[in-house]
Amino acid sequence: MDKLLYTFFSSRDDLRMGALPHSVDSQVAVLLYEQNGVISRRQALDCGCSEADIRRRLRRREWATVHPGVYVDHTGPLTWRQRAWAAVLDAYPAALCDRSVLPDPGETIHVVIESDRKVTKHPGVRVHRRVAFDRHVVWNMSPPRLRVHEAVLDIAASARTEMEAIAILADAVNSRITAAPQLRTALSERARMPRRALVQAVLTDIENGTCSILEYRYLTHVERRHALPTPIRQAPTAFGRKGFRDLDYPEWQTVVELDGWRFHDDAAARDRDLERDLDAAIGEQRLSLRLSFGQVVGRPCSTARKIATALAANGWPGPFVRCPNCPPESAR
Fold this sequence. Notes:
This is Transcriptional regulator, AbiEi antitoxin, Type IV TA system. By secondary structure, this protein is an alpha+beta fold. It has 14 helices and 12 strands.
């Protein structure tokens, strides 16, 4: 009965509109549909099931126990969403949080509950506690989840290093799952936030066009520390394949492209990059310089001096400024 109703009806609206009789089976079927085949004991009882009904479904292997009092409507392996629903229902009132809110959530299911509650621990589930957590939850999501900007700030707050925190913020905005203004507003409402000044500065730079951890490191360790001119960030190409230049210095006919590992790790991506370099040289008469993590993160001072040399050859008046980490002139 449940699986047949699954196929034709997808929400409780069908029940309200009279498309289905208000039977126990139909209510259970709709709830299972909405929750990816997962249901709690309390929900089943609220739909009109008796304890005997639940035991019968389990005995007939129509349902299987995921956690005590939480069931799934098959006996095979669980999908990620079924595991997520089971974790939320087991700890309810609860919601997904942390990385479980992101597009690439990982295997561990993260759920958030009120700070004063205790719940049973289960393998593969990590429980977080938060004061007045329900104010930041989107309850009509399936499953309910913390608002993305709150989750991103939580992940940045728990980052082990500054670089990791910067990468989390930049990646979240660059992937368009949230925006810098939303993160800034959420940050202002937090009484406590590790590395608050850093996070505020990073959000400002992201709003100004810095889109990745590599671009941020170029901005802070190559450009600013050595007083290089400010480029146009994410400048649209004017010739050949449509796209954007990471850093464009049009006044000095120079383009700087930053190759992070995430988007430049296969032959097709490398071919597109080289084609853009060729277009810049032939179609726009631009010098195109391509940098990777080694130049930007490992050797920022040396890289800054070389960029300055290239810009100066095309008319930049300088001056190049040595930072406290630059080696002595005699050591170069």
